[in-house]
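Folding Query — how this chain folds
Tokens — whole-number codes for backbone shape
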Amino acid sequence: MSRLKDLRTYIDKELANITDSDKRTSATAHLYGVSLAATILAKKRGLNEELSAMSGMLHDLHAYKSGSYDDHAHLGADLARKVLEELGITSKEETDIICSAIYHHDDKLVTDSPMDELLKDADVIDHCFKDSSKPVKEKEQKRYDALCKELGL
């Protein structure tokens, strides 16, 4: 089994614990959507596609498990580290890369490392393209505009 498939199996089991079916569906769609967007951006930008996909799968897991978005990026990075160490599917360096991206993913107005930026952008893609009837959030507008330009949209 691939590392990403192992991680997805773990995530799916965690999401199955969400009793509200609408919240569970939304969580699943968002994590898989961000993971897919991260993979596409990684391929375009020459970054590690597998680590990008893994960061997308894990980035909001803490929020979904706890039911709270309070400090979810920082707490989510801690949870991701525990999950990756428990599963034993990444090296320490790979875990650090994934956890840094998760830690910084909510800082949409700050520029960080290329992998951190990739996860922020993948999150914005999922937020903005999943339902185009919703307005783009103010903190995501600049990033959204840059992504549209980068992707030729």
